[in-house]
Specification:
heterotrimer, A alpha/beta, B mainly alpha, C mainly alpha, A: alpha/beta, D-Maltodextrin-Binding Protein, domain 2, 2 domains, nine-stranded mixed β-sheet, three-stranded mixed β-sheet, 13 helices, B: mainly alpha, 70% helix, globular, cell membrane (chain C), transport (chain C), phosphate transmembrane transporter activity (chain C), membrane (chain C), phosphate transport (chain C)
Chain lengths: 369, 354, 304
C-alpha cells in the first residue's frame, strides 16, 4: 500500500521531471519575415547586464520585439524581456525599481510621478524618450465605399454621435464622389482602458473641437465597446457601416479600409512616409535630452502630406543612477533600437523614426550614464 | 469512481482494516473479542496519543486558516475601497455612471454592473442547472455504461478549456450562429422587455444573451461533475426498494436519487453560480460595453463587475481610481456572500443528505 | 427502462403488480425524453468547443518545435517557435499550487467532517469555504498582489501566481473532499475505533483511502480550473517569451498568459499560437485526469 502510493507519487514526479527537464530551447531562428537588415549602422558597445527587464505599454510591444531581435543580433549574449502589461504598470514598476526601463504611452506626469522616478534614479532626473510611433488608423467598413476622407471635426462629430448616418452632409462634403449609403454609423470603441483611446481623444480635442474630454476610457457617449485592438478590428470587419480607431497593424491584418485625414492641406493616406512627416514636424517641450513631445504640434499639424493621428510611446529611462552594468546594457539596447532596430518597424505597423529625430534620440542615449 | 461499491459495502466486515495493513487488524478479524491485555494496552494509549492531538491541531488550524483568509480578503478590500468611496461624487449604489479617468473627480456607481452581472449569471444558471441535472441523471441512471464513461470524460475535459478560449469561441463561433436567433427573438418577441432591441449591435453578438449562454456552457462541467458524484452515491437499498414497490424509472429517480442528491446538487449549482458571477476573461472578450445604461434586455451590452475590473486592471496606476474598482470587487464579494448564505439556508433544510 | 412498464403486460395471469397507469407511463416517458434531451443539448456546445479547439490548434502542435522551444527572439508575425516556456510555467505554477492547496484543502475537509461537528468554528469554516468558492479570480489576484507585492515588497513571480491560485483551488478541494468523506459510512469508522485504532489513523488509513478516488477527481477538476485561470497570471506574473525556470523571480509565461498576449498579435502566427496553446492546455489536463484515474485505481481499496 505504502509502496504503491509512493510509487504513484514517484511516477508523477518522474513524468513531470521528464517533461520539464527535456531540452527546452530558447534558440529560434526566425522563419518567415526578414532578418534584421542593417538600417543605420551605429557602433554599439555591447556588454553589461545580460538580461534587461522592461515593462509597460502594450502598444509598443511588437516594436520592442523587433528591437530585441536586432539587439540580440548585435550583442549575441544579451537579451531583454519586455512585459506588455500597460503604461500604468510600466511607470509604476519603473518607479519601484522593478524594471530597468518603462514603456509608456504618455510622458511622466509632473509632480508625484516625476519625483518618484527621480528617487528611483538616485535623485537624477528620468528621461522620456519617444522611441516608438504607432499610427492610429480610422478603420471602417462600408460596402461600396473604398475611399473615405475625414477631417478631425467630422471625426469628432461621428464619434460623439452628432453625425449618425453615412450620407450625412458633413461626410458628403468631404467625399463628393463616393456613393455614401443611407446607413447608420456603428461606432466601435475600445472597452478596455487604452492609450490608443487616450491619444485619439487628445487628437480630436486638439484638432476637431472635441469637448468630451480625454483619458483612457472612451467618452464619446455613442456606440459599442469591444475588448482590445483585436476585438474592435474584428467587430468593424464584421458589420457593414462600422467605424473605429485602431492601431494600423490591426487595420491592415483585418483588411479594414482606412480613412484619409484631411488636416487642411488635402487628404493624406496613412503610410510610413506620411506619418514620418508628422514626426518630423514634432516639437520637443522637454528640456535637454528629456524629449517630451508637444503632442499638439503633431495632432495640429497642417504640413502637406503629414498624417497627424499618431500614438507616441516613450521609453522612460534614468539619465543617471543605474549601476554600471545596467547602464551599459540599457545604452546598448537603446542604441540598437534607435538605429538598426528601426528597419523592421514598418512591417510591424509602426513608423520608423525620421533621420533628424533619430539623431536626437541617439544623442540622448549616449548621455545616459 | 469505482468506490461506490466500497462505500456501500457493509462496514462491519473488517477486511478493510486488513487490507490497509493496520497492525492490530488481523488479530481483530481472527478474534472478534480481543484479549483483555491488548485492550487495556490500547486504552492506556488513548491518553497519550500525540498523533491524534497533532492531527486534530492541523485540521483545526486549517479551518482557522480559511476563516482568516476570508477575513483578510474582506479587510483588504474594505481598506482599499473606503478612501475612494469617500471621494465618489455620485451615489455608489444607485448611479449608473462610471468615470474614473480623473482621480480628482471620481464618478462611479455600480447599479449597471450589478444588474448586468446578476442577469448574466442568472441566465447562465437558468440554462445550466436543468441541463446539468439532466446530464448527471443521464450519466448515473439512464445512460448505457459504454456511453456514460467517455461522455463523463468529455464533460470533465470541458472544465480544462481555459476561459479565454470560451471567450474567443463565443465571439467568433457562437456569436454569428446566435445572430439569426437573436434577430428572430427581437422581431417576434420584442414586446417582452427582456427580448427588446438592446443598446448594442445584435450582429456583433456582444450581448448578455451570448455571454449568458457561453457562461452556462462554462459552468456546466462543474455542476455536472459534482452532481454526478453525489447521484452516483444514492444507496442501492433505496433504489432497489423503490423498484420493488413497482416504481417506474422516473419514480425511482424522483423518490430516491433526487432527495438524496438534492443538497449536493444545490451546492454544485452554487459552485457554478459563484463561477458565473466572477467569470472574467470570457465575459470581457464577448460582452460589448455600451454607452447607454442597461435596460433589462437580453440583447443589451454592458459590463459585469469582473469584466469591468479586468478591462481596467492593466492601467491601475492611481490608488484612487483603483480603489473604485476594488469597491466594485467588494460588492461582488458581498454578492457572492449573500448568494451563498441563501444557498446554505436552503441546503440546511435538507437533512437527509447530511 | 421500458422493461419495467412492459413486463407486467406480458404476464398471462392477472398480475400481482398493478399495471403501470397511463399517467405514470407518460411521466416516465417524459422524464426519459428530457434526460436524453438535455444530454443531447449539452453535447452540442461541448463537442463544438472541443472541435473548434482541436481543429484550429491541432496542426500547430504537430510541430516538434512547439514542445521544445520558446518564442524567444521571434517577432509577432514570424511563425515558428514553440510554447515550451509557457507549458513549463503552467505546470510548475499548477503543481506548486497543488502541493500547497491539497494538504490544506484535505485537512480543512477532515476538520469539518471528522472533528468540527456542529461547533461554531466548524460552521464558520463551512461558510467561509463557500464564500471562498465565490471569490472571483481577479479579486484573489488583487489580494495577493497587495499582500505579496505591496506589503511584503516582493517582486512579481510565478510563486505569487501559485499563491493566488491556492485561494481558488482550496475551496474546490475542500468541497469535493468533504462530500466524499461524508459519504464514507460511519460503520467503517466505528469498526476501526472498536479495534482500538486512534482516530487520526482511522482517518488516514480507513476514511481517506475509501474516499480517495472521489477526492482525486476533485483535485484534478480543481487543478483543471486553476491551470486555465487567466486573471491571476495577468496581474501577478509578467509574460516572457523565453524560458525562465526560476519560480521566485522574473517574468514567466504560462499558457493562458501566452494566449492573452498573442491576442495583441493580429497576424496568422498569433492565431496559431492562441489555439495551439489552448489545445496544449486541454491535453495537459487530459494527462492529469488520466494520471488521476490510474492512481485512484491503484489506491482504491481492494473490493474482492
Amino acid at each position: 500500500m505504502k509502496i504503491q502510493r509512493h510509487g504513484a507519487v514517484l511516477g508523477l514526479v518522474a513524468a513531470s521531471a521528464l517533461l520539464l527537464g527535456a531540452c527546452g530551447s530558447d534558440n529560434n531562428t526566425a522563419a518567415g519575415g526578414s532578418t534584421p537588415a542593417s538600417g543605420t549602422s551605429v557602433p554599439v558597445e555591447c556588454g553589461g547586464k545580460p538580461k534587461l527587464n522592461a515593462e509597460g505599454s502594450s502598444a509598443q510591444k511588437n516594436a520592442v520585439d523587433a528591437f530585441v531581435q536586432a539587439y540580440k543580433a548585435a550583442c549575441p549574449s544579451a537579451d531583454l524581456a519586455y512585459n506588455p502589461s500597460g503604461s500604468g504598470a510600466g511607470v509604476k514598476n519603473f518607479n519601484a525599481g522593478l524594471v530597468d526601463f518603462g514603456g509608456s504611452d504618455s510622458a511622466l506626469k509632473d509632480g508625484a510621478e516625476t519625483e518618484a522616478a527621480a528617487k528611483r534614479c538616485q535623485t537624477n532626473p528620468a528621461w522620456n524618450l519617444p522611441l516608438v510611433f504607432g499610427p492610429v488608423a480610422i478603420g471602417y467598413k462600408v460596402s461600396g465605399v473604398d475611399s473615405l476622407v475625414l477631417d478631425a471635426k467630422t471625426t469628432a462629430a461621428i464619434f460623439s454621435g452628432a453625425v449618425k448616418k453615412w450620407n450625412d452632409p458633413a461626410i458628403k462634403a468631404l467625399n463628393s464622389s463616393a456613393a455614401l449609403p443611407d446607413k447608420d454609423i456603428a461606432v466601435i470603441y475600445r472597452s478596455d482602458e487604452s492609450g490608443t483611446t487616450d491619444n485619439f481623444q487628445k487628437y480630436l480635442t486638439t484638432a476637431g473641437g472635441w469637448t468630451k474630454g480625454d483619458g483612457k476610457q472612451f467618452k464619446g457617449g455613442v456606440g459599442e465597446g469591444k475588448e482590445k485592438s483585436a476585438g474592435v478590428a474584428q467587430a468593424v470587419g464584421s458589420i457593414d457601416g462600422a467605424i473605429t480607431y485602431v492601431e494600423w497593424s490591426f487595420a491592415q491584418d483585418n483588411k479594414l479600409s482606412t480613412a484619409k485625414i484631411d488636416a487642411g492641406s488635402g487628404p493624406v493616406e496613412l503610410s510610413a512616409e506620411s506619418a514620418g512627416k508628422a514626426i518630423d514636424g514634432a516639437k520637443v517641450k522637454g528640456e535637454g535630452n528629456n524629449l517630451v513631445l508637444d503632442l499638439n504640434s503633431i495632432y495640429g499639424t497642417k504640413a502637406a502630406g503629414a498624417y497627424p493621428l499618431l500614438l507616441a510611446t516613450y521609453e522612460i529611462v534614468c539619465s543617471k543612477g543605474y549601476d554600471a552594468d545596467t547602464a551599459k546594457a540599457v545604452k546598448a539596447f537603446l542604441t540598437v533600437a534607435a538605429s538598426t532596430g528601426q528597419a523592421q518597424l514598418a512591417e510591424a505597423g509602426y513608423v520608423p523614426l525620421p533621420k533628424a529625430f533619430q539623431d536626437k534620440i541617439l544623442t540622448a542615449v549616449k548621455a545616459i550614464a | 469512481m469505482n468506490d461506490p461499491v466500497v462505500a456501500k459495502r457493509p462496514a462491519g466486515s473488517g477486511d478493510t482494516g486488513a487490507v490497509r495493513g493496520v497492525a492490530a487488524a488481523p488479530t481483530a478479524t481472527e478474534a472478534p473479542i480481543p484479549p483483555t491485555p491488548e485492550a487495556s494496552e490500547t486504552q492506556t494509549k488513548v491518553h497519550v496519543r500525540p498523533g491524534d492531538r497533532i492531527f486534530r491541531g492541523l485540521a483545526t488550524g486549517s479551518g482557522v486558516f480559511i476563516v482568516a483568509i476570508i477575513g483578510a480578503i474582506g479587510l483588504f478590500l474594505i481598506v482599499q475601497a473606503i478612501p475612494s468611496l469617500g471621494l465618489d461624487n455620485v451615489n455608489f449604489l444607485t448611479s449608473r455612471e462610471w468615470n474614473t479617468t480623473d482621480p480628482a473627480n471620481l464618478r462611479f456607481g455600480i447599479l449597471d454592473l450589478l444588474l448586468v452581472t446578476v442577469v448574466v449569471a442568472l441566465l447562465a444558471l437558468l440554462i445550466a442547472m436543468p441541463i446539468a441535472m439532466g446530464i448527471a441523471l443521464f450519466l448515473t441512471q439512464y445512460a448505457p455504461r459504454k456511453l456514460a464513461r467517455p461522455f463523463a470524460y468529455v464533460v470533465d475535459l470541458l472544465a480544462a478549456v481555459p476561459s479565454i478560449v470560451f471567450g474567443l469561441w463565443g465571439l467568433f463561433v457562437l456569436g454569428p450562429v446566435l445572430f439569426p436567433i437573436s434577430t428572430w427573438l427581437i422581431d417576434n418577441l420584442g414586446w417582452i422587455p427582456i427580448f427588446a432591441k438592446g443598446n448594442v449591435n445584435v450582429q456583433l453578438g456582444g450581448t448578455v444573451f451570448t455571454a449568458g449562454i457561453v457562461v452556462a456552457v462554462m459552468i456546466l462541467p462543474i455542476i455536472t461533475a459534482v452532481s454526478r458524484e453525489v447521484f452516483e452515491r444514492t444507496p442501492t437499498m433505496h433504489v432497489e426498494g423503490a423498484i420493488a414497490l413497482g416504481a417506474t424509472k422516473w419514480e425511482v429517480v424522483r423518490t430516491t436519487v433526487l432527495p438524496f442528491g438534492k443538497a449536493g446538487y444545490i451546492s454544485a449549482s452554487m459552485l457554478g453560480l459563484g463561477r458565473a458571477l466572477g467569470e472574467t476573461i470570457a465575459v470581457a472578450v464577448i460582452l460589448s460595453t455600451a454607452t447607454s445604461s442597461f435596460g433589462f434586455s437580453l440583447f443589451d451590452g454592458g459590463s459585469t463587475f469582473a469584466s469591468k475590473i479586468a478591462l481596467a486592471a492593466p492601467e491601475f496606476n492611481d490608488a484612487r481610481s483603483a480603489g473604485a474598482y476594488i469597491a466594485a470587487g467588494l460588492v461582488l464579494f458581498v454578492l457572492t456572500f449573500v448568494v451563498n448564505a441563501i444557498a446554505r439556508s436552503i441546503v440546511a433544510g435538507h437533512k437527509e443528505y447530511e | 427502462m421500458s422493461t419495467l412498464s412492459a413486463d407486467p403486460q406480458r404476464l398471462a395471469t392477472p398480475p400481482t403488480f398493478q399495471k403501470v397507469g397511463a399517467a405514470r407511463r407518460f411521466k416516465n416517458g417524459l422524464a426519459t425524453t428530457l434526460v436524453w434531451g438535455s444530454f443531447l443539448v449539452a453535447v452540442v456546445p461541448l463537442v463544438w468547443v472541443l472541435y473548434t479547439v482541436v481543429q484550429r490548434g491541432f496542426p500547430v502542435i504537430l510541430d516538434g518545435d512547439w514542445w521544445s522551444k520558446s518564442l524567444s527572439g521571434l517577432l509577432a508575425r514570424q511563425q515558428g517557435g514553440g510554447a515550451y516556456h509557457a507549458i513549463y510555467g503552467t505546470l510548475v505554477q499548477g503543481l506548486v499550487c497543488g502541493v500547497i492547496s491539497v494538504p490544506i484543502g484535505i485537512m480543512v475537509a477532515i476538520y469539518l467532517v471528522e472533528y468540527g461537528g456542529r461547533s461554531r468554528l466548524s460552521r464558520a469554516t463551512t461558510f467561509m469555504v463557500d464564500i471562498l468558492t465565490g471569490v472571483p479570480s481577479i479579486v484573489a489576484a488583487l489580494f495577493v498582489y497587495t499582500v505579496w507585492i505591496t506589503y511584503f515588497g516582493l517582486g512579481r513571480s510565478a510563486l505569487a501566481v501559485s499563491l493566488a491560485l491556492v485561494l481558488l483551488m482550496v475551496p474546490v478541494v475542500v468541497r469535493t473532499t468533504e462530500e466524499m468523506l461524508k459519504i464514507v459510512p460511519d460503520e467503517l469508522r466505528e469498526a476501526s475505533y472498536a479495534l482500538g485504532i486512534p482516530k487520526w489513523k482511522t482517518i488516514v488509513k480507513i476514511v481517506i483511502p475509501t474516499a480517495l478516488s472521489g477526492i482525486l477527481t476533485g483535485i484534478m477538476l480543481a487543478l483543471a480550473r486553476v491551470m486555465g485561470e487567466t486573471a491571476p497570471v495577468l496581474v501577478l506574473a509578467a509574460y516572457a517569451p523565453f524560458i525562465n525556470f526560476n519560480m521566485f523571480d522574473g517574468p514567466m509565461a504560462s499558457l493562458p498568459l501566452l494566449m492573452v498576449n498573442e491576442r495583441n498579435n493580429p497576424t496568422q502566427a498569433g492565431f496559431e499560437r492562441i489555439w495551439g496553446a489552448a489545445i496544449t492546455l486541454v491535453l495537459l489536463i487530459t494527462l492529469f485526469n488520466l494520471l488521476a484515474t490510474v492512481i485512484s485505481r491503484a489506491l482504491a481499496p481492494k473490493t474482492k
